[in-house]
Design brief:
This protein has 189 residues and is of the alpha+beta class. It has one domain. Helix content is 56%, strand content 13%. The protein contains five helices and four strands. The protein has a four-stranded antiparallel sheet with strand order 1-4-3-2. Strand 2 and strand 3 form a beta hairpin. Helix 2 packs antiparallel against helix 3.
Length: 189
């Protein structure tokens, strides 16, 4: 048997094994995707919509990297950010058993200025539940390739309530007029 015939025989012998391995790998990938879809069914329409939004964002990032529009570092960080947001969204939905999610922000350690401007809080002082600048509630850290600090943006009602509490704490001796109080009209004779 010549060299080309031996090579062909070796390829023919390993081809079925290669097909079986690829079939198993493909079925495992499909099973993993099926499990993800089933786990999304445990949530209501709002949470599912948010998870769908994150999936779409990942597809955009994937598309941009495939066209070489972004660097591999940009791709990696944003893919990890999307994973961190997904993990936090699922955790919040499961813990609250509620079909509601606040607006979530995930930032890496060197991105705090994006949310907090020129004087960001110290990472080492953050505690879960802390409210920062009456705008963000710190939810915790998610490690997805790198650590991401996840915050929930407070809705306007929560912000107003916190503002009221802050005002009442700073001026305890000042009597506050009721919200529906109006100034009396001056009558001109």
């Amino acid at each position: 048997m010549g060299q080309p015939a031996k090579t062909m025989a070796t390829l023919k012998g390993s081809l079925p094994a290669l097909l079986v391995l690829s079939l198993l790998a493909f079925s495992n990938v499909q099973a993993g995707q099926g499990a993800r879809a089933v786990s999304d069914d445990e949530f209501g329409p709002v949470v599912r919509a948010y998870l769908g939004y994150l999936k779409s964002e990942q597809e955009v990032v994937d598309d941009r990297v495939s066209r070489h529009e972004v660097s591999s570092n940009y791709y990696r960080r944003n893919s990890n950010r999307i994973k961190a947001l997904r993990q936090m969204a699922i955790r919040l939905a499961r813990e609250s058993h509620n079909d509601y999610l606040p607006e979530l922000e995930a930032v890496a350690g060197n991105e705090f200025r994006i949310l907090f401007g020129s004087t960001p809080p110290q990472i080492s002082t953050l505690k879960t539940g802390d409210v920062l600048r009456n705008t963000f509630r710190y939810l915790g850290i998610v490690r997805s390739g790198e650590p991401f600090y996840v915050f929930a943006r407070l809705d306007p009602y929560e912000q107003a309530e916190l503002q009221e509490k802050t005002v009442s704490k700073t001026a305890p001796d000042v009597e506050v007029a009721p919200k529906n109080a109006t100034r009396s009209r001056r009558v001109v004779p």
